[in-house]
Amino acid sequence: MRLPIRLIPGWRRITLVAAPVALALAAIVGALVYNSSTATTSGGTPAPAAAAPALDVPAQPGLLVHVVGAVENPGLYRLPRGDRVFDAIAAAGGFSPDADMSRLPNLAGRLKDGEQIKVPFAKTTSGTVTVRINLNTATVEELETVPGITAEFAQECIDYRTNFGGFQNLRELVDILGMSEAVYVLARKYFTL
User: Fold this and answer.
1) Backbone angles phi, psi at 177, to 5 degrees
2) Which of the chain's ends, N or C, has fewer CB atoms near its CB within 10 Å?
3) What is the residue-level pLDDT of the chain in tens, covering all 193 positions?
4) 82 with 131: CB under 8 angstroms?
């Protein structure tokens, strides 16, 4: 004998409500079962809870040091903790030929994060004298020997002194002829009026 299947009146409404609730409960139970199985290691001991991924960003390993002065490649270097000053200088390419070996920093000193290592240059004892050029009488060729002065700018200097009777102040190179401050700071020690 076959029994006819009888549905409860309004079964569609009940299914529309019950199906999402059943799926949500299945998802929660599945997540709990999965977490409980991964929370234990093979020995059965609980594993430490993982930190939030946004908070688990590791800091850069090692120390950041700044090596300046008489080295081949001055700059910033990241070195392992426990390294010495010598290691920082070696990372910067070693000493340059003009390093003053009698005034070096303590090469055996331990590095600290954010430290600046200064390697001094040797003072020249050759008696080099800076020759000063008179800005109001120099030729184009003489003006070109000054660091930062191009042939065009040297010609502008000569044109200015020819048209306006010469320079009264070295600052006129910047204020009137438009020399950059950086070039002026470098070149002013080579000029006289």
Assistant:
1) -90, -10
2) N
3) 566 666 667 767 777 777 788 888 888 888 888 777 665 545 555 555 555 555 555 566 788 899 998 888 888 899 998 899 989 998 988 888 888 888 888 888 999 988 999 988 877 655 555 567 888 888 888 888 887 788 888 888 888 888 888 888 888 888 888 888 777 777 777 888 7
4) no
